[in-house]
Amino acid sequence: MLSKSCYTAFGMDAKSLQTLELPNILDRLATYAAFSASKELARAIRPTNDLDESCRRQAETTEARTLLSMVPDLTVGGAHDMRPQATAAARGVVLEPTQLLDLKSTLIAARTMRRRFGKDQDSFPVLAVLAGGLEPLPGLIDAVSRVLDDRGEVLDSASDRLATIRRDLRTAHDRLLGKLQRLLSDPKLSPMLQEPIITQRDGRFVIPLRTEFKGRIKSVIHDQSASGATLFIEPLTVVELNNQMRELQLAERDEIRRILAELSQQVGQQSESIIQTVEALANLDLAFAKARYADMLRANEPILKPFEPRADSHHPGSTIRLLAARHPLLDPETVVPIDLTLDSDTYALVITGPNTGGKTVSLKTAGLLALMAQCGLHLPVISGSELSVFDAVYADIGDEQSIEQSLSTFSSHISNIIDLLKHASPRSLVILDELGAGTDPQEGAALARAILGILLERQVTTLVATHYPELKMYAHTTSGVSNASVEFDLESLRPTYHLTIGLPGRSNALAIAGRLGLDEEIVERARAMVSPEDLRAEDLLEEIHHQRDMARQDRVETEQARERAQALEAELARRLGEIDDERVDLLERARLEAGAEVEAVQEQLGDLRRRLSIAAQPLEALEAVESEIETLEDQITEPVSRSTADINLPARSIRPGDRVRLHSINATGVVTDLSPKQAEVQIGRLRIRTRLDELTPLGEDEPAPEYRRSETRESSVRKGIAPAPPLELDLRGHTVDEGLEELERRLDAAYLAGMPFVRVIHGKGTGRLREAIRQALHGNPYVASFEPGKAREGGDGVTVVQLANV
Prior knowledge:
Blueprint: H1 14-19, H2 22-30, H3 36-43, H4 51-70, H5 83-90, H6 97-119, H7 125-131, H8 138-147, H9 160-185, E1 199-201, E2 204-210, E3 219-224, E4 230-235, H10 239-269, H11 271-297, E5 303-305, E6 320-325, E7 338-341, E8 348-352, H12 359-374, E9 386-388, E10 392-396, H13 406-423, E11 428-433, H14 441-457, E12 461-465, H15 469-477, E13 481-489, E14 494-501, H16 509-515, H17 520-529, H18 532-614, H19 620-637, E15 659-662, E16 667-674, E17 678-683, E18 686-691, E19 695-697, H20 709-719, E20 728-730, H21 736-752, E21 757-761, H22 768-778, E22 783-788, E23 798-803
Parallel strand pairs: 5-9, 8-12, 8-13, 10-11, 11-12, 20-21
Antiparallel strand pairs: 1-2, 2-4, 3-4, 6-7, 6-9, 13-14, 15-16, 15-19, 16-17, 17-18, 21-23, 22-23
Helix pairs in contact: 2-3, 3-11, 4-11, 5-10, 5-11, 6-8, 6-11, 8-10, 9-10, 14-15, 16-17, 18-19, 21-22
C-alpha cells in the first residue's frame, strides 16, 4: 500500500526540482484528481532513485491507461477525504449528518472499486495491489443508511423513541394550528388582527394583533413589527399547546443527538480502516489522474534502464534516448519535438547555438522528463525512448542578466556549481546552462572547460549549453563528449528549435549582422579580423549543416511518397475487391437462374421419358437431349470464383465459391452457402450440408478433379444408390393429399440416392399444406430433422428436410 510518505524525494535536490519546473507538472497532474486526498498526494510526488519502484510506478500508470481505455467513465466519484472526521470521531466528536453522508459515499466508492478489481485482478495486478487496501465496511454503510436519508435528515425509523416523539409532535402541531386557526376565524377577533395568518417568533406560534387592540386578547406578547403597528401575540389559550410542542421539539433534538453520537462512535471504532480506505482510494485516483494526464499529453511509457558501467571505458553506463521529446509545459500544437540521444560512447553533451534558439528548453526538457519518468509519469515522447534512473538530478539554469548584475549572476552560478560538485556521483545527471557565463569570456571559457573536465573524470552524465567556441573544440577532441547545436534560419532570422546531435552550432554573427542591414564594409572588416582557420571551419560547418538539411528533406519527402504509395495501393485493392464482388454477385445470380431453368427442363424431360415408356415408344431420341442438358448443367454448376489480382491482401477463411475437400466422403466440391457452423458444398449435381471442420480449402497447386457423370453413375451402381432426384420439391397448388403423396415418393427417391436433404416448397397461404407436410415428416423414418428455410430461401414458405442417411 502506498501512502504519502512513499512519494518523498530520494536524494533529489529540491532547488533543482523547482528549476526544472516539476512542481508545475504536479500542479497540472492534481487537476485530474477527483478529490482532495489524491490532489494532495499528486502534489507530494517526488522522483524515486530506485529502478524497481520507478518501473512499478510506470506500470501503475500503464495499467490505469489501459483500464480507462476500456471503461472511460471509471472514477472514484463520491469519495471524500474523511481522515480528519474519522480521527475526530475516534476522539468522541459527534459528526454532522452531512459528514456522515460523505463517509457513506466514500465507502460506496471503495466498494465499487474493490468489486472492479476483484474481477480484473489478473489483468491489472499493480492496481489490484492498491485496491487491496480498500475496506468497504458494509456494516457502516448500512448503519448510515438506516439513520439518514439522502438529504441528511434523520429518519423516523432511526429509533423507536424518535418515531414516537415525532408522531406526538405531529399531533401536537395539528392541535395547536387547529386552535389558532379557529381564533383567526372568530368574527369577534378577526377585526383586531393585522392579517389572518399564523407565524412564529422565538420558536412559538403567534398571530399578528393590531397595536390599538393591545390588551383586548389575553396573551403573551413575543415581538413587535418595525413600524410598531403590529404585535405578535401568543393567546393564553394556546400557551399549553405551544409548551407541549416545544417540549417535544427539545426531546426530538436530544434523541437525534443521541442517535448521531451512537453512529459517530461506530465511525470512531472503524477509524483506522476508514483512513486506510481513503488512502487506498487516493492512490487509485492518483493512478487514474496520471493516466488522464498522459492521454492529454499524448505520452508514452519510457523504457527505464539500469546503469551498466563498462570495464573498458570511463562511461558510467547511463542511457538517455529521448525521441521526438516535447516539453510538457509548452503548447503541444506549436512546440518543436527534439531527439536527444547519447550514443554508447557519449555521456556528456555540449549544446551551442544562438540566443533564444532552444538550448535552455532542450536542457529543461531532458531534465524534466528524467524527473517525470522517476515519478511514474508517462513522457511526451514516441515509443522506444529510454532513460536511466538517476540517483539525483542537479540543474543550474538561469538567463544571463545585465552588466550591473553580472557579479551576482556569476556568483549565483558558481555557488550552485560548488554545491552540485559536492554531491554529484556517477549515477547523477548534471544540467548546466550557460556554463562560465557572467564574467570575462576568456576566464569563463577556461573555467567552463575545467568544470566539465572534473565532471567527466567523476563519470557524471552531463548536459551543457554554452556560447563559448572553445567548448566546441573541447567536445570534439575529448572522449565521452559530443557536440550538439540548435539551428537558426538565416532567411527568416528566426531559430528553428531543432536540436542536431554531432555538430556544433554556428555563430552566424556576421551573417545575421549583414541580413539586418549593417554596412557591408563593416561586416567585411570584421570578417578580415577573424582567423582564416576559423572562417574555413565555419564554411565547412555551414556546408555540413546544408548537406544534413538536404538529407533530412529527402528523407521526409521519401517517407511522404511511401505513405502516399501505401494509401494508393490500399485504395486500389479496396476498389478491385468491390468490383470483383460485384462481378461474382452478378455471375452467381445468372448461374442460379440458369440452374433453375435447367432443372425445369430436366423435370420436363423426365415427364416426357415416363410418357414414352408408358406409350412403349423408343427412348433413343431423348438421349442426345439428355446429354446436352448434362453438359449444360456441368457448366452451370461450375462455381463463380473471384479473380486473383497481384495485390497482397490478407488471408481469409472459407467463403462461397471456394474449392474444398470433404473428408467424410473424400470428395472435392465448391462451397455454395455458408452459415456460422455449417457449409453447403456442391459435388457435381449433389449438394451436401456439412460441418466446417469437415472441409479443407484446396491449395493453389491442388486442382479440383473434373466431375465425370459416367464415373459417378458407375460408382452409384456399385454402391446400389439410385440416381439423384431434383433437390427441390415444389408442392404449391397441390391439395393436401396430393402433396403428401408426392412428398413420400420424393423422400423415397432421395433416400435411395443418398441425398443429404430436400427442400420442400409449399408456400405460406393458409398454412394447411405446410402443417400437414411437417406433421407427416415427424413420423417418417427417412427424416433426421427438418426446419423452416432461411430468409433468402423463402422463409416459412419452405421446409428443409435433413435425411437420416447423412
